[in-house]
């Protein structure tokens, strides 16, 4: 029952409707198994999504389950808050740290499939925001697999397809309506070669599979950067595979450059809000101290408290302006 072809698919915003259309073209005669990561909130209902997909295909649609055997003619959907990993002949679910701020991460799925099945893997990136899937697609390409992206001109959110196209030369960039015929062509003409998996692809796949993180592990796949992890504060290691640059800490958090910048902005804003809260509390305390000392007849001390409160209010106003500028800038990006 183990399939000859492994099809891995990644999508984000706008992805559900696109997947419904794509699975219609999956042929029951294809010797393949299909794995899908759709970025979902942790509260998403997987059974509902499977029901939606099953309405559009005769293939069996299932939520991915840990340590189950891979079967041909089956579509496996990643469940919220778990990485979906493809091992040789079986599925593994991972609770490792988020990659690109997501769990499940498209990169984790793609990289694990490339490490397990090399040239037998076909990767597909569909509509979505940011750039999860780009480094995973490059891992598939370097391992002898086939790379397909949705034409960004028709994608509802073109970020993810454009990110792949900007980093590498894909095998096919096609509209959704042509993707079925392209997959048919790959099934019929693909010549498999047993390629040596790049060491960095194997290393990162092992990290995701076994949560084998640690300083000694990440030192083998990159060099220390000047940045710290916005989630845990550890030093980030810069991983450069020749096409993509990403940052990984020794506890496992991983970011592309764009994701790192976004996470830094989120943390900066959160820090500013904490500072604003503390300054407002201090101003309130100064006001109470002013009233108490004035009531007791200590006008000089009361005026000192009042002056400090006035000065603090100026800082509060400036901080509010800065927060407005920060939010406007991030929204514009």
Task: Offer a few descriptive terms.
333 residues, alpha/beta, Rossmann fold, 7-stranded parallel β-sheet, 4-stranded antiparallel β-sheet, 10 helices, 13 strands, 45% helix, elongated
Could you explain the architecture of this structure?
This protein is an alpha/beta fold and 333 residues long. It folds into three domains: 5-189, Rossmann fold; 213-252, no CATH class; 268-332. Helix content is 45%, strand content 20%. It is built from ten helices and 13 strands. The protein has helices at 15-23, 46-54, 106-117, 134-142, 159-167, 176-189, 199-210, 215-218, 257-295, 299-332; strands at 5-11, 32-38, 60-63, 74-77, 83-87, 90-94, 121-125, 146-150, 172-174, 223-228, 235-240, 245-249, 254-256. It has a seven-stranded parallel beta sheet with strand order 3-4-2-1-7-8-9, with helices on both faces. Strands 10-11-12-13 form a four-stranded antiparallel beta sheet. Strand 11 (235-240) and strand 12 form a beta hairpin. Helix 3 (106-117) packs parallel to helix 4 (134-142). The longest helix is centred in the last third of the chain and has 39 residues, at 257-295. The protein is elongated, with a radius of gyration of 25 Å. 38% of the residues are buried. The model has no long low-confidence stretch (mean pLDDT 90).
């Amino acid at each position: 029952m183990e399939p000859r072809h492994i099809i891995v698919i990644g999508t984000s915003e706008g992805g559900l409707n696109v997947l419904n259309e794509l699975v219609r073209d999956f042929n029951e005669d294809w010797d393949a198994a299909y794995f899908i990561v759709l970025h979902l909130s942790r509260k998403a209902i997987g059974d509902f999504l499977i029901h939606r997909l099953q309405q559009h295909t005769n293939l069996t649609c299932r939520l991915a389950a840990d340590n189950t055997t891979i079967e041909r003619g089956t579509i496996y959907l990643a469940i919220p808050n778990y990485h979906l990993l493809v091992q040789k002949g079986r599925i593994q679910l991972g609770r490792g740290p988020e990659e690109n701020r997501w769990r499940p991460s498209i990169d984790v799925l793609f990289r694990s499939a490339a490490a397990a099945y090399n040239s037998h893997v076909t990767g597909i990136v569909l509509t979505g925001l940011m750039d999860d899937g780009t480094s995973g697609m490059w891992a598939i390409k370097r391992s002898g697999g086939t790379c397909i992206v949705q034409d960004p001109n028709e994608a509802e959110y073109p970020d993810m397809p454009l990110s792949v196209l900007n980093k590498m030369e894909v095998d096919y960039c096609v509209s959704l309506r042509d993707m079925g015929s392209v997959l048919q062509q790959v099934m019929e003409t693909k010549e498999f070669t047993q390629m040596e998996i790049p060491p960095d692809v194997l290393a990162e796949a092992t990290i995701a599979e076994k949560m084998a993180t640690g300083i000694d592990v990440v030192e083998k796949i990159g060099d220390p950067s000047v940045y710290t992890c916005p989630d845990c504060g550890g030093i980030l290691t810069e991983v450069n595979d020749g096409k993509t640059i990403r940052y990984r800490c020794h506890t496992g958090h991983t970011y592309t450059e764009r994701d790192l910048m976004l996470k830094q902005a989120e943390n900066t804003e959160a820090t500013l809000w904490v500072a604003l809260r503390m300054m407002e509390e201090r101003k309130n305390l100064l006001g109470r101290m002013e009233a108490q000392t004035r009531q007791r007849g200590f006008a000089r001390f009361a005026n000192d408290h009042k002056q400090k409160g006035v000065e603090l209010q100026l800082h509060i106003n400036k901080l509010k302006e800065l927060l407005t500028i920060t939010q406007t800038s991030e929204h514009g990006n």
